Inverse folding.
């Protein structure tokens, strides 16, 4: 296991659409290592989620700490969302020092594959729903600063 460098805003890999993980890669040491390294990196950086593009890999893989467990979700796809929205303060390991209020769906349902390629369904509300939406945005080249309603710190950053 090793920790990986987290790319920061401005890195081109954070801005491209990541590719689905192909079926042949499930169960390989390469994929297992990537997942373990992403988990280790997220923990080291005190994050509650991380997406593969943040470690320079444009694969559709996210790690989410939902408060109960930390797990990998591969090729995640949101299948339904609540009309009800909630606002909360977000930050991102790739945008250090910047926090702001983002509006997101209160509840989401998604499907994904686990690291072994087994289909999983997730139904979440509140905080974990926000984390899943934030991380899935990364797979589409979107950062929370693109959606922020109001910055709560880091306003002087000239790139925003
Ligand atoms: Co992020």
């Amino acid at each position: 296991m090793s920790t990986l460098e987290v790319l920061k805003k401005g890195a081109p890999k954070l801005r491209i659409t990541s590719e689905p993980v192909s079926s042949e890669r499930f169960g390989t040491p390469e994929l297992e290592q990537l997942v373990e390294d992403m988990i280790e990196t997220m923990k080291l950086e005190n994050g509650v989620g991380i997406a593969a593009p943040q470690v320079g890999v444009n694969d559709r893989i996210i790690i989410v700490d939902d408060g109960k467990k930390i797990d990998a979700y591969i090729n995640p796809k949101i299948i339904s969302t609540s009309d009800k929205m909630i606002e909360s303060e977000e930050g991102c390991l790739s945008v250090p020092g910047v926090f702001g209020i983002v509006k997101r769906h209160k509840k989401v349902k998604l499907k994904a594959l686990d690291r072994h390629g087994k289909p999983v369904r997730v139904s979440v509300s509140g905080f974990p729903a926000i984390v899943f939406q934030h991380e899935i945005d990364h797979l589409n080249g979107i950062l929370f600063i693109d959606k922020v309603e109001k910055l709560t710190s880091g306003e002087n950053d000239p790139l925003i």
User: Anything to note?
Assistant: DSSP finds two helices and eight strands in the chain. Helices lie at 29-44, 127-139. The mean pLDDT is 95.
